[in-house]
Amino acid sequence: MFGNDTLIIREVIMAVPNKDEIKGKYEQAKGYVKDKAGEVTGNERLEAEGEAQNAAGEAQETWGKFKRGVSEAVDSVGEAISDAGKRANN
Questions:
Q1: Quick one: DSSP state of residue 18?
Q2: Per-residue pLDDT tens over the stretch 28-56
Q3: In the chain, what is the greatest distance between 2 CA atoms, to the nearest angstrom?
Q4: What is the torsion angle, in degrees rounded to the nearest 10, for the CA atoms of residue 18, residue 23, residue 29 and residue 33?
C-alpha cells in the first residue's frame, strides 16, 4: 500500500530543481537581458558581460543537474540495499 505512494512522492520531490539549478537559470536570464541591452544600445562591454554571465549561469545549472543526478543515484543504491535487507529477513 505505502510502497506506491512513497514512490510517487519521491518522484515529485526529485523533479524539483536544486538551488544551483535555480541560481543558474537566474544568472542566465540576467545575462540574456544584459546581452540584448548591449546589442540594442551598441554597448559592446555590456553585451560581452551579458554573454559571460549567461555562460556562467549555464555552468552553474549544469553543476546543479550533476549534483541532483548523484543524489538520485545514491538514493537508488540505498533503496536497493534496504530492499535486499528486507527480502533477506523474510
A1: -
A2: 999 999 999 999 999 999 999 999 999 99
A3: 72
A4: 180
Instruction: Fill in the DSSP letter of residue 36.
Output: H
The HSE-up count of residue 79 (CA atoms within 13 Å, CB side) is 10
Beta strands per DSSP E along 1-90:
none
pTM check: above 0.85: no
CB 51 within 8 A of CB 2: no
Phi, psi of 42 (to 5 degrees): 75, 15
Helix (H, G, I), strand (E, B) or coil at 42: coil
User: Would you say 51 and 31 are in contact if contact means Cβ atoms under 8 Å apart?
Assistant: yes
